């Protein structure tokens, strides 16, 4: 059994947040499977866990997947926190600091500690710990994505590049150009033809 000591916003065992993927693999060994999020995740089946990296290849979060006991343990300040069930977990942490996820039963998130926990009756508990500001940044990205999606409904095929930029001017400070496309805040790609007339739009949460 592997034992991980969690230091909020700093590290989990030998894994230090913002370390490179190469260093993380030195600490954990070679990943057995890397299919997630355009290759930006490493799966470790032996420990039932996943490591996620940002667009620069730096470790941003570690998720311990729903599992049976016996693979590993996560400790915090000398107390076992995973795998634990809800009533035991909140004997250690102040539940008022956690926000429940209304879309899932027994799911909670704490932005201060950058930890999320889920208790699923079928798959068992799962837990995700992350670097500092992980969910603050994620919440901001979701707001930005939502705004861009609303604005994109005003775009129509055949519009000139200037017309689309006028509609999306709230995000023009983050505009990037790639070939015949304008990229807004990484999330929205507006594609133009050879005459600079709009053809289509595409959304992507990853770096385009």
Q: What is the mean pLDDT?
A: 84
Instruction: Bin the helical content.
Output: 10-25%
Give the helix tally: 4
Order of helices and strands: EEEHEEEEEHEEEEHHEEEE
Question: What is the topological layout?
Answer:
Layout: E1 2-7, E2 11-12, E3 15-16, H1 21-28, E4 41-44, E5 49-53, E6 59-64, E7 72-76, E8 79-82, H2 86-89, E9 99-100, E10 107-110, E11 115-120, E12 124-130, H3 134-152, H4 161-167, E13 175-178, E14 181-184, E15 188-192, E16 198-203
Parallel strand pairs: 1-7
Antiparallel strand pairs: 1-2, 2-3, 4-5, 5-6, 6-12, 7-8, 9-10, 10-11, 11-12, 13-14, 14-15, 15-16
Notable features of this structure?
208 residues; alpha+beta; 2 domains; 7-stranded antiparallel beta sheet; 35% strand; elongated
